[in-house]
Amino acid sequence: MSLLEIENLRVSFDTEAGPVEAVRGISFGVNRERVAIVGESGSGKSVTGRSILRLVRPPGRVTADTLRFDGQDLLSLSERKMRAIRGQRIAMVMQDPKFALNPVMTIGDQMTEGLRRRDGLSRRKATARAIDMLAAVQIRDGERVMRAYPHEMSGGMGQRVMIAMMLIPDPDLLIADEPTSALDVTVQAEVLAILDDLVKERGMGLIFISHDLRLVSRFCDRVLVMYLGKIVERLDARDLESAQHPYTRGLLNCLPSIGGDRSALPVLDRDAAWAE
Predict the structure, then answer these.
(1) Cβ distance 228 to 47 under 8 Å?
(2) Is 222 buried (19+), middle (13-18) or exposed (0-12) by CB count in 10 A?
(3) Cβ–Cβ < 8 Å for 174, 110
């Protein structure tokens, strides 16, 4: 049995022009491995991640034949039971820390809130654990950062804070939405090494949402390619360069190569039939 099982997941939003389907009947499973979801902006990647945690609120609607985590039917759980799963067993690194972090709370209060309320740790122990996790994502002046507010953080610093915050409870499944997009190459490699250790040593499952196909091919085990709310191709990450679907080939062809010619990159051709 997979750690996460999804069958026929659909997410729609009611609009004045009628319902719009953002995710249209996708099915996949995640074991204790690194599964990437790739595609253009608007393909349904982030909505898929949020729907797993039941974070899609009205006018959004989530339905599925199966949405099961570690044997539990997530769609049938009460909100109280879902709160016990969010963060503790399934965590999600949001794409943009400027909007995901609370602007009126210090970084320290946000990082220690769950430890103190959920785990009953004292302020001193919770603070020490938070500082240790900040150090793990290469934030060296942890005490200063704990006193700071989100607007005082750079984009890369805020992204590292978000990653540290989600890793504190040692989740069984981490949904990482563009977790390294604002990081420089050195810090990116260090953060990926932390995630890799958690998957290999602790057996954490990882859903890695990204636009970076080259990064995905090096770091992940499997790749799901999404287009207009549907999965159009599934393949092992090591075989990404040999993808067969024209959409995946188009994404790969749009990537510049070092030492290549200087001609214009090809424009991605799209076919409505891919999403049928």
Answers:
(1) no
(2) buried
(3) no
The 10s digit of each residue's pLDDT in 47-72 is: 999 999 999 998 999 999 999 999 99
The β-bridge relationship of strands 60-63 and 4-15 is antiparallel
Cα(216)–Cα(131) distance, integer angstroms: 29
Residue-range definition of the domain harbouring residue 255? 1-89+220-276
**Measured in whole angstroms, how far is the alpha carbon of residue 182 from the centre of its chain?**
14
Residue 94 corresponds to which tokens in the numbers above? Answer: 């949001």
Of residues 23, 143, 156, 169, the one with CA closest to residue 86: 169
Nearest to 1 by CA among 74, 70, 49, 53: 70
Residues in the chain: 276
Q: How many domains are contained in the chain?
A: 1
Phi, psi (rounded to 5 degrees) for 11: -130, 125
Residue 13 belongs to a domain? yes
Residue 245 within any structural domain of the chain: yes
- Binning pLDDT at 50, 70 and 90, where does residue 188 land? confident
Tokens coding 83: 């709160």
The torsion angle over the Cα atoms of residues 78, 83, 88 and 92, rounded to 10 degrees, is 110
Residue 42 lies in a domain: yes
Contacts of 100 (CB under 8 A, 6+ apart): 94, 162
Strand order in the sheet with 90-93: 90-93, 173-177, 205-210, 34-38, 222-227, 230-236
Residues 219-261 pLDDT 10s:
999 999 999 999 999 999 999 999 999 999 988 888 777 776 7
Taking each helix axis as running N to C, give the angle between helix 123-136 and helix 155-167, from 0 to 180 degrees, rounded to the nearest 10. 120
Distance of alpha carbon 223 from alpha carbon 209, whole angstroms:
10
